[in-house]
Amino acid sequence: MCGIVGYIGNKEAFPILIKGLKRLEYRGYDSAGIALLNGDLNVFKKAGKVSELEKITNGKSVGANIGIGHTRWATHGEPNDVNAHPHLSQSNELAIIHNGIIENYAAIKAELEKRGYNFQSDTDTEVLINLIEEVRKTEKSSLEDAVRVALNEVVGAYAIVILDKKDPNHLIAARKGSPLVIGIGEDEFYIASDASPIIEYTQNVIYLDDQEYASVHRDGTYVIKTLGNVEKSHAIQKLELSLEAIEKGGYEHFMLKEIHEQPKALEDAMRGRMNALQGWIKLGGLSEYLSRIENAERFVITACGTSWHSGLIGEYLIEDLARVPVEVEYASEFRYRNPIIKESDVVFAISQSGETADTLAAIELAKERQALIYGICNVIGSSIARVSHAGSYTHAGPEIGVASTKAFSTQITLLTLIALQIAQSKGTISTSRLRTILYEMENIPKKIKETLELDSQIKELAAIYKDARNFLYLGRGYNFPVALEGALKLKEISYIHAEGYPAAEMKHGPIALIDEEMPVVFLATNQSAYEKIVSNVQEVKARKGKIIAVVNKGDTQIRALADHVIEVPETEEVLSPLVTIVPLQLLAYHIAIMRGCNVDQPRNLAKSVTVE
Ligand code: F6R
User: Fold this and answer.
1) What spacing in Å lies between the alpha carbon of 609 and ligand 1's midpoint?
2) Mutate which of 356, 359, 409, 495 to test ligand 1's pocket (most atoms within 8 Å of Cβ)?
3) Could you check whether the bond before residue 86 is cis, i.e. omega within 30 degrees of 0?
4) Model confidence over 378-420: pLDDT tens digits?
5) Which of 182, 446, 452, 486 is most deeply packed, by most CB within 10 A?
6) Which tens digit of pLDDT belongs to each residue from 180-219?
7) Is the pLDDT of residue 483 over 90?
8) What's the CATH number for 3-245?
9) Average pLDDT of the chain?
């Protein structure tokens, strides 16, 4: 939610900020703005995309070696020019960009109003910068001290960067609950929500911890302190991200690129962690805590959205293979419903971004109650990765399209490996069954590649159904969460209403929706419940629904009933979601494109949900 970027050094700040904002646009894209300091403090801000901001700067003076920029996902106040960041303090001396929410902003605002402050915007951010200004004024303190005092007064989450008109050689950045990376160049600093705006300039970075702030200076010096005013020293880390990984690489959209990257992403997720020939699985994070994990009375999987769907598949996998009871919880519910969590529980937290506020809060709660936390994240060094006791990275590479694709399939890959390693260690799986699954896992990237070749067939299907008003997705067993995920993909990027259901539940309600206008997507690759799915297909056909069935190659029974079949290569049932999700991702993508939607940046959404 919101991308922030700052620069101080000898280069022109404007192109660095604009390029950085475009890279961060996945985090929010309802308005954007920059502030540049060159004697004058010039602020440009505009509702809409970064490209709109660029337009209004055409022909304007944008020369400066220090500046800050922001791309917004609105929380307080509608997305318009005024609410766009940066925000200025009342004296016009301080400018701020902010990602997060100041929860007690209303009380602070009321107090500041009493002291004569007027507010231009509806944002909590403008309140924060005026609080800092007020502290600086009344306590006659340095900006750094004022920032520290003010941040100790606010409740909520933030990553902020502050620019002071009177001090063109200095930026202050702070974080709590929202990510912040500082890139260190030669006598220059880059500050950003993630490393993508930094990567082409320097590989040396520092990740600020929660409740820390950094003062960076044009002469190349910097200091990091806690909000308690204790100086900290952080090791400088080397970025492993490549520029190529964050660009579109010839694809029209990030989402399409990321769908096509799945075979490689899965290989990367498995690399060095398993060997089918030798029959072993070894996840570093898991091995370290294996005896505690093995002896856990139950597992809780917590996550949001797509990651929650992969968590559901995790439940099926772990209960099926490792015979440990699993509960899957929406993090947003789990954190507020006073759940029973015991010391003997293991909580698996799944998150692509590693920054999702609800998932982080669920972790904190479970940690307080002494459970072991195992994080499954994609973003290296993210907050969830850092607060977990143990964990595994999915190694999917940067996922920039807002709709999650390769993160989902790599999460499932990791959950499969986790289930198998525990199963092997507990002896709940035979050696031959384990080997069969591991061999098949090695084949999955090839099977996904084969499935991706169905692209033109799926595009034709998309053309037929692009104007549908509703879609139903049905699956059983391992394919039920895939139905949920297929429906989510379609609704979030094409804005067609779609629902996923367990196929057998259809007759308990949703069947009332079926008529000749209703496309029903069946996931029908299951070997175990095949006949039951055939019956469900019959039930839809009897009501004249339009049947699109994802089936195994060579299927004849469902082909005879369905309006359309998508034939995918057969695999082990436990691994089938890795294959069956692919046509659903492509279907959603093509329908959305045909409806003229922005697939990489769907309306109202943002990639990283750092607010609850
Ligand atoms: C949907 C999607 C979201 C995320 C959810 C959790 O395509 O991407 O539903 O899965 O916001 O995000 P992470 O996985 O970053 O915690």
Assistant:
1) 8
2) 356
3) yes
4) 988 888 999 999 999 999 988 999 999 999 999 999 999 999 9
5) 486
6) 999 999 999 999 999 999 999 999 999 999 999 999 999 9
7) yes
8) 3.60.20.10
9) 95
304 is catalytic: no
Under CATH, what is the fold of the domain 250-451?
Answer: Rossmann fold (3.40.50)
CATH number given to 453-601: 3.40.50.10490
Which residue spans of the chain are classified as CATH 3.40.50.10490? 250-451, 453-601
Is any atom of ligand 1 closer than 6 Å to the C-beta of 521?
Answer: no
The secondary structure of 93-154, three-state, reads CEEEEEEEEECCHHHHHHHHHHCCCCCCCCCHHHHHHHHHHHHHHHCCCCHHHHHHHHHHHC
Asked if the model's pLDDT at residue 494 lies above 90, the reply is yes
Lowest average pLDDT, out of 60-69, 234-243, 419-428, goes to 234-243
Q: For the chain, how big is the Rg over CA atoms in Å?
A: 25
Which residues, at least 6 apart from 542, have a Cβ–Cβ distance to it below 8 Å?
A: none
For the chain, where do the domains classified as CATH 3.60.20.10 start and end?
3-245
Q: Which residues of 528-541 are buried (b: 16+ CB within 10 A; e: fewer)?
A: ebbeebbebbebbb
Whether ligand 1 lies within 6 angstroms of the CB of 394 is answered as no
- Tell which one of 363, 609, 610 to mutate to probe ligand 1, the residue whose CB is within 8 A of the most ligand atoms: 609
Closest-lying ligand 1 atom to the alpha carbon of residue 303? 16
Tell how far the Cα of 309 is from the centroid of ligand 1, in angstroms: 10
The reply to whether ligand 1 has any atom less than 6 angstroms from the CB of 352 is: yes
Cβ–ligand 1 distance for 353 under 6 Å, the answer yes
